[in-house]
Amino acid sequence: MANTPSSLGRYVARLLKDDPPRAKSLCVSLLGDALACHGGAIWLGGIIELLEPLGINERLLRTSVFRLVAQGWLQAERHGRRSLYQLSELGRRRTAHASQRIYDGPSAQWNGDWTLVALPRLGNNALSERLELRRELTWEGFAMIAPGLFAHPQADAHTAHEILEKLGIPDKALVLAGRDLAGAGGLPIASLAPQCWNLDALADQYRHFSDQLGPLDKLLDEPAEPADAFAARMLLLHTWRRIVLHDPQLPVPMLPEQWPGHAARELCGRIYWKLFDASEQYLDAVAGKDNERYTPLSDEVYARFGGRAV
Questions:
Q1: Residue 1 pLDDT
Q2: Which of 59-68, 141-150, 205-214, 241-250 has the lowest mean pLDDT?
Q3: How far does the chain reach from its first CA to its final CA, in angstroms?
Q4: pTM score, whole prediction
Q5: Are 73 and 28 in contact (CB under 8 A)?
Q6: DSSP per position, 61-94
Q7: Could you count the other beta carbons within 10 Å of the beta carbon of residue 1?
Q8: CA trace torsion 199, 106, 134, 67 (10° rounding)
Q9: Is 162 helix (H, G, I), strand (E, B) or coil?
Q10: Rounded distance, CA 232 to CA 254, Å?
Q11: What pLDDT score does 243 carry?
């Protein structure tokens, strides 16, 4: 007779049915949240065993892993008939960059400084280069406040220079630091926030997250089985990651009062730590099996979501 699913397992199954995750995106969530802090190496069979219970079949997982190798996230090694996958240097940089948004969130303080990117004419391929640059800047949370002028109150100049280098146009845009002089009668840049960033849609996503994942908080008043805890942790982080990586991360003083992102982040962190120990037991058993490169948990993990409550 099959074991009866736990309350947590049933709720996770319901969430998966309502909003099934994409295979490649779920693999990235696994790499960034669970594996990077354990050395970043795992057998292909381990990836399959960890993620198949989340509704992704083996064929899709294999395809997703191969694509991550092709895109430079992972490096592959053959060991007889088995394949070991290791986060590449590029993969480590990308996961580390995303971690600030995922675990730390927007700054509580803001000194009023802005990072600006100004786009003069970019030559014969101006249109395609501008479109690509706009896409990359928007991904990093920049908004266009005037034709050819992008601004962000939180991103540093290094981020903007990295984007220009990546696109091969480091000398075709201006990266500036600025502070508006609205006190002299001008329009404050911060007043443009509702027009430049779609905060209403983002607020709706945070509210939906709290409604959708909130019941897990109560369910976890009881101890969770390791396999269920791991599945819930991956689904939690995957759902959270899809929102916060599209959040411009405006500093708290620029956000509306009663911003729902604050409550959603607090909820996510609380659920995350309730799941953590049991999920790590399952991860150790699966990803650590016959894997000499699976390392002990790194200490910086315990700073996630403001730090683990004692």
A1: 39
A2: 141-150
A3: 40
A4: 0.90
A5: yes
A6: HHHHHHHHHHTTSEEEEEETTEEEEEE-HHHHHH
A7: 3
A8: -110
A9: helix
A10: 33
A11: 96
Query: Amino acid identity, residue 241?
Result: R
Give DSSP secondary structure letters for 230-267: HHHHHHHHHHHHHHHTTS----GGGSPTT-HHHHHHHH
- Round to whole Å and give the CA distance between 92 and 39: 10
CA distances 290 to 195, 244, 286, Å, are: 53, 35, 9
- Reported as a single tens digit per residue, the pLDDT across 79-128 is 999 999 999 999 999 999 899 899 998 888 888 888 999 987 655 556 67
Where do the domains of the chain lie, and which CATH numbers do they carry?
113-179 (3.30.70)
User: Quick one: pLDDT at residue 231?
Assistant: 96
- Output the furthest CA–CA distance in the chain (Å, rounded): 77
Cα distance between residue 106 and residue 101, in whole Å: 7
293: which 2 tokens? 């490169």
Cβ contacts of residue 26 below 8 Å, gap of 6+? 51, 54, 56, 64, 234, 238
Per-residue pLDDT tens over the stretch 45-70: 999 999 999 999 999 999 999 999 99
Map tokens 């101890």 to a residue.
223
The C-alpha atoms of residue 175 and residue 178 are separated, in whole angstroms, by 10
Torsion, Cα of 185, 187, 188, 192 (10° steps): 170
CB neighbour list of residue 143: distance below 8 Å, 6 or more residues apart: 150, 151, 152, 192, 196, 197, 248
Residue 96 is encoded by which pair of tokens?
Answer: 């580390």
Rg of the chain over all Cα atoms, to the nearest angstrom: 21
For residue range 216-260, list pLDDT tens digits in order. Answer: 999 999 889 999 999 999 999 999 999 999 999 998 888 888 999
For residue 121, give both structure tokens. 């004419």
